């Protein structure tokens, strides 16, 4: 729940209690003024603020009405009766909120909050894959832009990707754009995986044909591809009791070496319910700070922290300006939005 208070001092004290040891006091004092004004404008405008798990702690633990991963926030966006949605995340997330709420104003606080993974594929690329593999359904990861969703049959998140793939009829599935997530889903579902490149294939065994196969794409998250098995080995040497949690966008070898893999929300719940004392999260580093604030009795090991430059674009200052000046409005052509909505709805129906 968002921080509530009618004075800067009351907000500061709540933030200090929550984020002591995570965010410096002098920074919290400045942030408290911003939070007070954001909350005032949010109520005045009847706005909803959504915050992804990768938001920096002072924002994550203050103004969002709901926090979570992409799937959770999609559901909240679909159910809201608010006229304005401020999405503290990256562009593809705000686009998804607009896809589900065509009559509402959806704001993205920074125009530079993009995504290297979403930028790795276009709708034209999807159409070429369809031509190359006629009849194969297309699953697009939620980390794609609206045009790609519109060219797809169904979307998925890291938390339900395997479930979505297994729900589809037929032996061949096109899965875009994350290379590592596709490989991890292939392993989980018992499928093999191939990658089209210049009309040839890289195949991970000696079988021919495309039976029971995932057609992948060479897109990667610039954060999660940085983690390695050596990172895990070095941490385990120093902290033998550490529990390692890896996001499914990590390399399959990293996922295999971890103790647990799942979406950001699944990792959060794992830490909350586990009795272990020490954790290493192989994902965006602000999430480690946010979990540490919620679980002060547990230690988050910070030997492999990587900050997403795109998520880092979203600040409390920009969130305030978004409400003040309607920055930055997300617009999607209706023809694309309607087709993208079908793919998102199918995902939500599956779970």
Question: What are the main properties of this structure?
Answer:
alpha/beta; 351 residues; Rossmann fold; four-stranded parallel sheet; 3 domains
How does this model look, in words?
The structure is a single chain. The protein is of the alpha/beta class and 351 residues long. It folds into three domains: 8-116 and 311-325, 3-Layer(aba) Sandwich (Rossmann fold); 118-220, 3-Layer(aba) Sandwich (Rossmann fold), CATH 3.40.50; 224-301, NadA-like (Rossmann fold, 3-Layer(aba) Sandwich), CATH 3.40.50.10800. Helix content is 44%, strand content 16%. It contains 15 helices and 14 strands. The strands form three sheets. It has a six-stranded mixed sheet, with helices on both faces. The protein has a four-stranded parallel sheet with strand order 2-1-3-4, sandwiched between helices. A four-stranded parallel sheet has the order 12-11-13-14. Helix 8 crosses helix 9 (179-189). The longest helix is centred in the N-terminal third of the chain and has 21 residues, at 25-45. The relative contact order is 0.15.
Helix content: 40-55%
| Computed CA radius of gyration, to the nearest angstrom | 21 Å
Please name the CATH topology of the largest domain: Rossmann fold
Total helical elements: 15
Integer tally of domains: 3
CATH architecture term of the largest domain: 3-Layer(aba) Sandwich
């Amino acid at each position: 729940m968002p921080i509530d208070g009618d004075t800067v001092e009351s907000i500061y004290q709540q933030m200090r209690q929550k984020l002591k040891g995570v965010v410096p006091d002098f920074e919290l004092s400045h942030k408290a003024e911003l939070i007070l004004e954001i909350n005032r404008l949010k109520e005045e405008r009847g706005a909803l603020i959504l915050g992804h798990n990768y938001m920096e702690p002072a924002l994550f633990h203050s103004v969002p009405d709901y926090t979570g991963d992409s799937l959770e926030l999609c559901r909240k966006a679909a159910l809201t009766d608010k006229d304005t949605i401020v999405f503290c995340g990256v562009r593809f997330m705000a686009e998804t909120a607009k896809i589900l709420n065509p009559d509402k104003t959806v704001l993205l606080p920074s125009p530079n909050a993009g995504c290297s993974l979403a930028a790795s594929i276009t709708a034209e690329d999807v159409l070429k894959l369809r031509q190359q593999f006629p009849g194969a359904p297309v699953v697009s990861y939620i980390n794609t832009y609206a045009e790609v969703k519109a060219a797809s049959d169904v979307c998925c998140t890291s938390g339900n990707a395997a479930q979505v793939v297994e729900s589809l009829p037929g032996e061949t599935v096109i899965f875009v754009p994350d290379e590592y997530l596709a490989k991890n889903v292939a392993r989980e579902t018992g499928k093999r995986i191939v990658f089209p490149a210049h009309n040839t294939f890289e195949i991970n065994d000696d079988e021919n044909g495309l039976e029971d196969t995932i057609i992948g794409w060479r897109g990667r998250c610039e954060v999660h591809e940085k983690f390695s098995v050596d990172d895990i080995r070095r941490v385990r040497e120093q902290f033998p009791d550490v529990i390692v949690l890896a996001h499914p966008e990590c390399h399959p070898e990293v996922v295999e070496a971890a103790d647990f893999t799942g979406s950001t929300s699944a990792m959060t719940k794992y830490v909350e319910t586990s009795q272990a004392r020490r954790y290493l999260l192989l994902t965006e580093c602000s999430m480690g700070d946010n979990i540490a604030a919620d679980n002060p009795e547990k230690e988050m090991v910070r030997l492999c922290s990587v900050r997403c430059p795109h998520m880092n674009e979203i600040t409390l200052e920009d969130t305030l300006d978004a409400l003040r000046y309607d920055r930055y409005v997300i617009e999607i052509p209706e023809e694309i939005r309607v087709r993208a909505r079908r793919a998102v709805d199918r995902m939500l129906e599956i779970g």
